[in-house]
Amino acid sequence: MSHTPQKHRVRRIVFITIGAVAGVLGLGLGAILIVGGVFVPATYLQPWNVTYYQQSTDARMQVVAHAVLAPSGHNMQPWNVVLDTADASVLYLYADPSRLTPAVDPDSRQTVVSQGAFLAYLRVAAEELGYSASFELFPDGSYDETDLKKSMSQRPVARVTLAKDPSVATEDYSSLFISDTNRAPYTAAPLTRAQTEALTALADNSAARLSILSDKQDMTTLGAFGVEGTLIETQYPAATAESAAVFHGTEQAKNEARSGFAVEGQGTTGFKKYFLQGLITAFPALNDDTAGARNAIALTDAGVHNTAAYGLISTPANTRTEQVEAGILYAQFSLHARTLGLVMQPLSQVLQEYPTMAVPYAAIHAEYAPEGQTIQMLVRVGTPTIEYPVSMRRDVTSLLRTP
Description:
By secondary structure, this protein is of the alpha+beta class. The protein has 2 domains: 43-176 and 391-399, NADH Oxidase, CATH 3.40.109.10; 181-382, NADH Oxidase (3-Layer(aba) Sandwich), CATH 3.40.109. Helix content is 42%, strand content 12%. The protein is built from 12 helices and 8 strands. A 4-stranded antiparallel sheet has the order 1-2-4-3, sandwiched between helices. It has a 4-stranded antiparallel sheet with strand order 5-6-8-7, sandwiched between helices. α1 crosses α9 (270-282), α2 crosses α3 and α3 (109-128) crosses α11. The protein starts with a helix and ends in a 21-residue tail after the last strand.
């Protein structure tokens, strides 16, 4: 009994110590979450709202407000739009030369493919709103490749004409609002025959070709190409520097940039997203090139071992028009796959045209494009295990350019 007061004092000291440690940890966690932007409104996600397009009464801007959700290389969203002042049914799509990624896309092929993706999304939106959308590609002629940036600014990729058409319809409108890329492992379920036939039929009226491959040898070969391409890209200093320059680690930075990469690309959501953003802001070494490479390779490796099939999109040659057509087909493929309950992830690093990628680039073309075709896209396809978060999108008005 004589020791009871001393025991109580010891217990109080222990409880006070635990409480103090917990308080410090709580304050630290709170600080990290605040740095990560837990209280910052995510304005960069506004275009994903299904009513976002209604801010404009101009049908052209309404369809463009949907098209900004399209996928693009490095999520750069390299699109400019000019509204025809003489014809309220016409708009012009231009590539934005200020949003190129020359390290991984030295020929701007992916940028032009991204133009096609924009057009495919625009057409689906138009059909949902009761319009047909017709495209005249490169109405002023193709680019002057000797002065590409200037030519991109001067020559439109497409002249788009909208026409009221009550007969048009689309199955894929709701798929516009689902993330175009899912890097998570997929289930073991194979694509059904009906799914495969519905997807391959999308290429029937395209200048591009779509192949869906799922036999064991193709799965092994294409999976290996996916991993090799990722490994090479992570070891290419110009590519890693380019990616780092467009990575945005806080909500504030994402609201300002509204394009490029963020932690959502790894599937990170909720409080974990804010925590991770706070950590890499406070301790940048956690997201250095080594850590980024390790993450990218691990994600790709897990992905290729958990997928049902691969899709290859190719064109007879590699003209700018064919690149746009490949982008249209890719976006149609991606959208309709989501309508059918499937998801996909591009693994197109192996198709990039810089020197250190030359050997696997030649190898995949020798294997899958032996008659001189150009493979424009390589994707993995399957049934999702998780819903992937959507990524940053520009405000639609930022795409507008004066004539």
